[in-house]
Amino acid sequence: MEADAKPMKLGGRLCCVCNQRRAALKRPKTLEQICRECFYAVFEEEIHQVILENKLFKPGERIAIGASGGKDSTVLAYVLSELNRRHNYGLDLFLLSVDEGITGYRDDSLETVKRNELQYGLPLKIVSYKDLYGWTMDEIVKMIGLKNNCTFCGVFRRQALDRGAALLKVDKVATGHNADDIAETVLLNILRGDIARLSRCTSIITGEDGPIPRCKPFKYTYEKEIFMITLGCQSLNELSTYAYFKKLDYFSTECIYSPNAYRGFAREFIKDLERIRPRAILDIIKSGEDFRIATSTKMPEQGTCERCGYISSQKWCKACVLLEGLNRGLPKLGIGRNQGLNSDAKKDIKKDDRTKSIESKQCGSLEF
Amino acid sequence: MACNSSTCNSSGCYKEYEEEEQHKSKTRAEVKGSNIRQNLCVKCKSSEPVCCGIGGEDSRFCKDCFKNNLYGKFKQAVTYNAMITPPDKVLVAFSGGPSSRVLLQFVHEMQYRAQKNYDASKDKSLPVFGVGVAFIDESSTNSFASQQIEKAIEDIRSIVSNLAPPSKELFVVPIESIFSSDGIDCKERLKKLLDALGDVTGKEDLLIHLRMLSLQKIASENGYTRVVLGSCTSRIACHVISATVKGQGYSLSADIQFVDSRWEIPVVLPLRDCPAQELNTLCSLDGLKIVETPNGPFSGINGLVSSFVKVLQEENLSRECTIVRTAGKLTPFHFNRIPEIQDSNVPSATRRHHRRHGLKSNGSLSSESFCAICNSPLKKSNSSSSLTNESPQPSNRFVAACSSCQFQILPKDPSLMEQFLPLLPHPMITRAKHGDRGNVSSLREQIQDFLLSDGDDEI
């Protein structure tokens, strides 16, 4: 993007942090002119401070880094292993990838993750939709088309990450969601009227009541800066002493199945905002944190899925419902807000219960 | 905050706002299909529906049913929230745009009906509320031809004087008159104040705050008990998004309620549930004259937000309603209702009226402090989240202001700040002084502290 064009224009100015070297870029977050070395230092230090202030990790914890092979998770894997070493966090880090089974997208990006495994010396675990659910995304899209396929992918991935994390026996999963992502989610939740999600989408740690909490060390990190890190690293090869950066390769293609217009509007809007007021992204996150949402706002009660044992507010977890739809050839089952799907499934369960498993008969039939 | 036509006229058609899902509206359209074929209004099933837009969804109500539906929303908002009660004197903020034009019409109709009831009643126990109209002339802040604004004011005079009795007082007040009590050149002062702002969005927002102060001043000086704004759903949806973008998430819920009595004269928003398209439609159906005022379209953040909301609204016709509904679920503040009448002079009929509508105070008055500039409630200091990532702005710590106003309105440089503060109109200065933080001496100290380190920041 503009990242490589800008440094040219700025020639001559001194870095506002060290006041010694020539400023090489304008920090997207603050518009400060800064030299490369200071930029990397500030970038890493900010993340370190976020980790400390929010007590994201405890010494001795096993942490899985959700690694997609994209720029965010690649930089996250790099920064976390670096900070872990430098500041003695005492963490056992792992890479955890989900293979959705998207030919030409995920298979390529997984190659990147595999390289990262070697570069950072972090053990990698890959869980695939095919193994967990018996369906690849390619097969799902073949069945349901390009509409709503992101619902399947999102629901399945969330659960797949948890399952992978359980296999690795980690205490927490760190994901590469950046400030832009979170700002976008705040807006989308306003646009679709989801007050419950609006209240928790800005939390830096989520799912603390669930089996494996998630955290977002990049909550306040701008996408552009992450991008600059990866970009800088590539062009730095020749001129920089920061040799480690030259190995920071990442995979950069949009998912081939996600031409999501609606999310696109919000994304575009945030980029426009950032252009005229960089702090708008942080302001949106701040708004998200400050919204006065009554704690009595009804949160769905958490239980476990009767089919697979995963956390679920309904009788069946969303993944099982969607899967049931796929397997029965009724993929529309899980889509939309009509709960018909789950009540539908409930009826099915009852039938199934009666016919199949008399010994494990649930009292669910009294549930009206 | 009266509505500008330029921001609210998203194209499309009006529709009922409950629906969200497209397939739902599709089925409804199919159901309606039969009605349309018979060419009858879906409500009264007797008159022909009016065609007032694009697409089949529009031609559902006949003119009367459409109007009654819209008036019903207004009336319900007014009565449920006790916005206007018989002894009140209400000041309608009138910009000349479609929303405030409809507002004026509705308030007028309500008053007209109240007058008829009064004339017919025997004991005359419930008086008829009074109505005034205020137009804030902002021509001094933009460079439009004076004939244009004179023509607009002429039109406004004729609109107000052509309304049936009871007659309504019209105030045409230039925005700079908020400075009039200081006995100085008001225009010059306003210009100086606005010129001190570097941020386009900050300038626009400051003007909105000044407009509210002007309305408050007119209302207060002339014995009005309510200020009525024509903020429509579309306008409020834009405010929800722009407040979010400006980091005002905490105070947002204060701004979007039907009633806002943090001001000396309570402010009410009876058109909150009416989308701009419906108001536009009514204006064209009823031939309500709209006055073009030279308020340009928004720019900066506000401009981006309104075009974003417009795109969303075109993609889904109930998007604006959904946005407002989401924000409506945020917890309001204690001042978001009409303060209880304690005065024993109030006629018992009025008090009965209040009781009937269950307007009781819940007594949960918390001591809120307010931003000196925008009067939004300030969040009790919570330093956890913003520490690492917002560049500290110690220069402004001595003015109790929200982070948004600190960023886009107050100058960053403490020496500029000293020049800037006296330019503000009286109510803002008073609020700044009453702010719980800082007296003059600590102000000086903090400036000193800051000046020492200031040199490093310059590039």
How many helix segments of chain A? Answer: 14
- Total helices of chain B: the number is 17
Strand count, sense and closure of the main sheet of chain B? 6 strands, mixed
CATH topology of the largest domain in chain A: Rossmann fold
Question: What pair of chains forms the biggest interface?
Answer: A-B, 48 and 46 residues
Series of secondary-structure elements of chain B, N-terminal to C-terminal: HHHEHEHEHHEHHEEHHHHHHHH
The domain tally of chain A reads 2
The outline of chain B comes out as globular
Q: How are strands sequenced across the largest beta sheet of chain A?
A: 5-4-3-6-8-7
How do the SSEs of chain A run, as a string of H and E? HEEHEHEHEHHHEHHEEHHHEEHH
Indicate the multimeric state: heterodimer
Quick recap of the structure?
The complex is a heterodimer of chains A (368) and B (459). Chain A is built from 14 helices and 10 strands.
Overview of the molecule:
The complex is a heterodimer of chains A (368) and B (459). Chain A has 368 residues and is an alpha/beta fold. Chain A folds into two domains: 44-290, HUPs (Rossmann fold), CATH 3.40.50.620; 303-358, no CATH class. Chain A is 47% helix and 9% strand. Chain A contains 14 helices and ten strands. Chain A has helices at residues 6-9, 36-53, 71-86, 106-120, 129-133, 137-144, 149-168, 179-191, 195-200, 223-236, 261-276, 280-290, 318-327, 340-355, and strands at 25-26, 33-34, 62-66, 92-99, 124-128, 172-174, 205-206, 214-215, 303-304, 311-312. A six-stranded mixed beta sheet of chain A has the order 5-4-3-6-8-7. In chain A, a hairpin with a 6-residue loop joins strand 9 and strand 10 (311-312). Chain B has 459 residues and is mainly alpha-helical. Chain B folds into two domains: 56-340 and 351-357, HUPs (Rossmann fold), CATH 3.40.50.620; 369-450, no CATH class. In chain B, 46% of the residues lie in helices and 6% in strands. Chain B contains 17 helices and six strands. Chain B has helices spanning 5-8, 22-38, 63-80, 98-120, 146-161, 186-195, 200-221, 233-245, 252-255, 276-286, 300-315, 319-328, 348-356, 403-408, 414-420, 426-434, 440-457, and strands spanning 89-93, 130-137, 169-174, 226-228, 259-260, 267-268. In chain B, helix 4 (98-120) packs across helix 10, helix 8 (233-245) crosses helix 11 and helix 8 (233-245) crosses helix 12 (319-328). The two termini of chain B are 39 Å apart. The chains are: A alpha/beta (368), B mainly alpha (459). The interface between A and B is large, with 48 and 46 residues.
